[in-house]
Amino acid sequence: MKADEEWVHPNTITGDAATDERYLRRDRINEYFWREVIKGNHILFVAPRRVGKTSIMKDLAGNCPDGFVCIYENIEGVTSRNEFYRRLFELILQCVHRSKIKQAKEFIESCFKKYSITEISKSGIKLGVQDINYEKEIRDLIPELTKATVHAVIFLDEFSDVIHKLKKSGLHQDAIDILHTLREIRSDDDFRHFTVVYAGSIGLEFVIKQIDRPKLINDL
Ligand SMILES: Nc1ncnc2c1ncn2[C@@H]1O[C@H](COP(=O)(O)OP(=O)(O)O)[C@@H](O)[C@H]1O
Ligand SMILES: [Mg+2]
Predict the structure, then answer these.
(1) How many other C-beta atoms can be found within 10 angstroms of the C-beta atom of residue 32?
(2) DSSP 8-state class, residue 202
(3) Beta 117-121 vs 68-74: how paired, if at all?
(4) Which one of 11, 14, 26, 55 would you pick to mutate in the ligand 1 pocket, going by the greatest count of ligand atoms within 8 A of its CB?
(5) How many angstroms separate the CA atoms of 142 and 146, rounded?
(6) What confidence tier does 220 reach under pLDDT thresholds 50, 70, 90?
């Protein structure tokens, strides 16, 4: 496909991802996935709709090995750079909050104080402080995660679709900015106990080609 062509979604029936007894696990894929995460790699799942991306991400997030703590989120509704960073910030805290390890609990307690958090639940986080620069806070927060002694894995479903939509709606710079920040986080040693798993039905390579920055994802 050429870079100036429009992406056309194939016509597919919609339906929920397969979970629990409806889900057929391919152990080989799960093992391969965790081997790559342990090696320090960040993962990108790209396949057309209805191939099983959401199903496998939910399964991986729900059955992670000891020492890891995971969260899955469909970020489809994100429409700006700030909103993306806010979601990622909240997901990191929600993720660590799930851990039962003492150090993780202490870490979350310190975050409760720092950000005047009043509530962390499945539906989100309530903060007492306003005017947060979420991008900056993410950069400060992730290296601090070593104190929590858990490896946080964030599964961002529909990521490439969000980047594609930003680009299409004229927020070209927001798309580049997000990809750039994530690239920096991936390549920084301080962030090695933090993994982001990306998925989308639009090939991220295709989107990146359109914004002409191949280096932003060639490590995935
Ligand atoms: N591992 C699996 N085991 C059983 N059914 C699956 C599996 N993966 C996908 N499916 C079937 O395919 C459909 C689409 O899967 P889904 O995870 O939503 O795909 P995608 O996120 O790629 O669009 C599901 O509703 C389910 O019927
Ligand atoms: Mg899906």
Answers:
(1) 12
(2) S
(3) unpaired
(4) 55
(5) 8
(6) confident
- Name the pTM for this structure: 0.91
Q: Which amino acid belongs to residue 193?
A: H
Q: What is the pLDDT of residue 56?
A: 96
Q: Where are the domains of the chain?
A: 24-216
CA dist 217 and 91 (Å) reads: 22
Question: What is the Cα–Cα distance from 99 to 81, expressed in whole angstroms?
Answer: 28
Dmax (CA) for the chain in angstroms is 52
| Sheet of 151-157, strand order | 43-46, 194-200, 151-157, 68-74
| Distance in Å, CA 216 to ligand 2 centroid | 23
In this structure, CATH architecture of domain 24-216: 3-Layer(aba) Sandwich (3.40)
Q: Is residue 132 within 6 Å of ligand 1 at its C-beta?
A: no
Q: In this structure, how many other beta carbons lie within 10 angstroms of the beta carbon of residue 46?
A: 18
CA of 53 to the centre of ligand 1 (A): 7
